[in-house]
Write a structure and sequence with these properties.
Layout (H helix, E strand, L loop, with lengths): L4 E2 L5 E2 L1 E9 L5 E10 L20 H13 L4 E6 L13 E2 L13 E4 L10 H15 L11 E6 L2 E8 L2 E6 L2 H14 L2 E6 L2 E2 L2 E6 L2 E5 L1 H5 L1
Parallel strand pairs: 2-6
Antiparallel strand pairs: 1-7, 3-4, 5-10, 5-11, 6-7, 8-9, 9-10, 12-13, 13-14
Length: about 220
């Protein structure tokens, strides 16, 4: 955010705090999260933004990726991008009100101008996907022909597959060195949480063994 400026003559988007618990595949609390979000529902299409976009993977693509990994004896791994929407640069002029309980006592009529996206904004998903996809494509990957959230990369006789779902990234390769290279590449640009082998994704619990990949939805059924 830039320094505070007067809101006179400017439309200001509201802001609020959201608190939630992040759960693991067994339903246990692993992290408490507090996040400042914009009240994007107050933005009007055609006035405050032109179009929205969300980098959501097709479930069919995930099924095919799991089958492909099992057939080629590939191990799938998962990483999480921290504060994803704060990485996306926005082109529009957007102002948000001062965060609740952190308002200035003297500059009560001031707001913040955003340089980067904020959770809740209609422009946030598009800005984040633009940042991420540009970085991946600049490093030799290609867009999937059917699902644009899938990014393959060929290395002569080896290859690496990357699947993006908002802030979750799963990837698999035919060579273990490619795993490490991709992990290091992503960490040079983004703040990442390495989550190890893929175990839980889009409601699917996943177990990878030398005999194959098994999926179930025990947690979903219990809920």
């Amino acid at each position: 955010m830039e320094a505070s400026r007067t809101t006179k003559g400017k439309k200001v988007v509201g802001a609020k705090w959201v608190f939630r618990n992040k759960l693991d595949k067994d339903g246990k609390v692993v992290r408490n999260k507090a996040r400042l979000v914009a009240k994007g529902y107050s933005q009007q299409e055609g006035i405050d933004y032109t179009k929205t976009f969300a980098s959501i993977a097709r479930l069919e693509t995930i099924h095919i990726l799991l089958s492909f990994a099992a057939y080629n004896n590939m191990k799938l791994y998962q990483m999480d991008v921290k504060s994803i929407f704060l990485n996306g640069l926005i082109q529009d002029e957007v102002y948000v009100e001062q965060p609740p309980r952190f308002e200035s006592e003297t500059l009560t009529q001031h707001a913040f101008k955003l340089n980067k996206a904020l959770y809740g904004l209609k422009q946030a998903s598009k800005a984040w996907y633009g940042k991420l996809s540009s970085f991946i494509l600049e490093n030799g990957f290609e867009h999937g022909m059917v699902d644009t959230t899938l990014f393959p990369k060929n290395y002569d006789s080896q290859f690496l597959l990357v699947q993006v779902y908002v802030d979750d990234i799963i990837f698999g390769a035919t060579n273990e060195m490619l795993y490490e290279d991709f992990s290091k590449l992503m960490q040079t640009e983004f703040e990442m949480s390495m989550m190890g082998e893929l175990k839980f994704f889009l409601g699917l619990q996943i177990k990878q063994t030398p005999q194959g990949i098994y999926i179930h939805q025990t947690k979903y059924v219990k809920n």
